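User: I'm new to structure prediction. If I give you an amino acid sequence, what do you actually give back? Let's try with this one:
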Amino acid sequence: MVRTGCSWRQLPVDFPPWQTVYWYFARWEADDLTERMLTILRRRVRAAHGRNEEPSAGIIDSQSVKGADTVPRTSRGYDANKKVNGRKRFIVTDTLGLPLIVCVMAASVQDRDGAKTTLLGLHLFTPVRFVYADAGFAGLLVGWCQRILRTVLEIVRKAPDQKGFAVIPRRWVVERSLAWLTAHR
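Assistant: Good question. You get back a string of structure tokens that encode the predicted 3D arrangement of the chain. For your 185 residues, that looks like this:
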């Protein structure tokens, strides 16, 4: 189910009628129950790893994904760099790779522009004031974060002599989280 998704009408037979399941889902979403559960679970996982319950640092990245036929054209865009027509996910995770905030935009949105919205949401809802990023987020965004959000945006670059794939310290956890999102709906 997590890998392929499912329409409400195709729920397995051992579930209650789909209308009942949907009613609970809608009610829980209206009450922000899912968000509260995720916050509690994130805090417990962090505590189990010997960390403070609330993170102080995060890692931001983006990923362009192809838009399904059901995705309206008005919310899609073309990422010329990745050659993808669809949407772009912006995600900030804590240093364990646990999601703190996710924003979805048209794939045509540049990383630095989409990061402003994402980092503003992060600023409003978490105590994180230090964020690692890749070179796609460099430039004026670094100063904007410092000036407007009072947040340090540190650009983590790959080694100058690096050829091919290599795990980059600090950034690998967000890359892993994006891979998990790709494999599981």
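You can read the tokens as a compact description of the fold. Here is one thing that stands out. The first helix runs from residue 18 to 30.
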